[in-house]
């Protein structure tokens, strides 16, 4: 490919903010891959120009905290739009930062999101014809952890 014909640079289009309410972690313990834990998803809200509704209290986040301090995240849960359409979410990601910052997060302190890396790659599955675009679009989540929830700004990659 010649440099006179570059590929299109992707854009990020804001879709919605997910406020995912979570319970306290259940610690499984140390494994060969790192410390394993599970965090139940207890509800939440979805607010945006293209998607609005609530997060159902069904699902959770399976985490592995690696020896290098990186948290590998794998969450599965359901959204329900204001119109009653259901959307299954499968969200993977990474969270990491300086050890002192990560300790503050674990202790439930408020930490500015710019002090650590927390991004996800959600996939959506729905049978709604109105929302079929979710089934064929790639997304990026920019996230932050608070004491009671996870905030995810959801962007479609265009």
Q: Can you walk through the features of this model?
A:
The protein is mainly β and 158 residues long. 5% of the residues lie in helices and 58% in strands. The chain has 1 helix and 9 strands; from the N terminus they run E-E-E-E-E-E-H-E-E-E. It has one helix spanning 99-106; strands at 12-22, 26-31, 34-47, 53-65, 71-81, 86-96, 117-125, 139-145, 149-157. The chain has an 8-stranded antiparallel β-barrel with strand order 1-3-4-5-6-7-8-9. The longest helix has 8 residues, at 99-106.
Keywords:
8-stranded antiparallel barrel, 158 residues, UPF0311, globular
Class by alpha and beta content: mainly beta
Using the alpha-carbon principal axes, give the shape: globular
The oligomeric state of the chains shown is single chain
User: Per DSSP, what share of the residues sits in E-state strands of 2 or more residues?
Assistant: over 45%
Distance between the termini: 21 Å
Indicate the radius of gyration in whole angstroms: 17 Å
The pLDDT mean sits at: 95
Spans with pLDDT under 50 lasting ≥5 residues? none
The biggest beta sheet is recorded as: 8 strands, antiparallel, barrel
Number of helices: 1
Number of strands: 9
Share in helix: under 10%
Identify the strand order in the major beta sheet.
1-3-4-5-6-7-8-9
What is the element layout, followed by pairings?
Blueprint: E1 12-22, E2 26-31, E3 34-47, E4 53-65, E5 71-81, E6 86-96, H1 99-106, E7 117-125, E8 139-145, E9 149-157
Antiparallel strand pairs: 1-3, 1-9, 2-3, 3-4, 4-5, 5-6, 6-7, 7-8, 8-9
